[in-house]
Amino acid sequence: MNQLKTYVLLAGLTALFGGVGYLIGGQTGMLIALAMATAMNLFAYWNADKMVLSHFRAQPADANHPDPRVRAYVADTLALAGRAGLPAPKIYIIDNPQPNAFATGRDPAHAAVAATSGLLGLLSREEIRGVMAHELAHVKNRDTLTMTVTATIAGAIAMLANFAFFLSPRDQNGNSNPIAGLLIMLLAPLAASLVQMAISRARE
Q1: What percent of the chain is predicted at pLDDT more than 90?
Q2: Which residue among 20, 75, 161, 178 sits deepest, i.e. has the most Cβ atoms within 10 Å of its Cβ?
Q3: Domain 53-141 falls in which CATH fold?
Q4: Whole-angstrom Cα distance, residue 44 to residue 151?
Q5: DSSP 8-state symbol, 109
Q6: At residue 168, what are phi and psi to the nearest 5 degrees?
């Protein structure tokens, strides 16, 4: 049921993107918007994991790390992946005092998981195992790809909505309608964010 809900919400997000393009530039605008969505999704599919890890300045972690907590985190994550029948993910550590962890990658064969130093310092080893099991479940269900596509489309809608401020939609007589442009600029990103949150909640 969650899978069906996610696909429906993704379809709605794509339709919203095309609809905003149509309101701004008619049929041509809609086609350009959908082409942009396709191009951005392809780029995200191949590069999102590298971009996310680079943004957080994540560093590779392995069994030779000098910190015993990191070594335990690596060993437990690899063991959990093996028990779940997943390929061994790339494992990263992020030097950040805030407790956090995430998974990324387009599929299980190209997955990566990361945890912050704050998480490793705050939680017990058993609790860290639970967190990483949760992240590996996202990998197994390919939620990382779904959320990447969702974030890309939502970001593209926000970008497209900003164009509406400069390229005001036209009415049936071809006259500029700045009020409609302002409404699109304000409401389209809000609608995209709501759909994105709904998809995230369904995948969690």
Answers
A1: 41
A2: 20
A3: Zincin-like (3.30.2010)
A4: 9
A5: G
A6: -60, 140
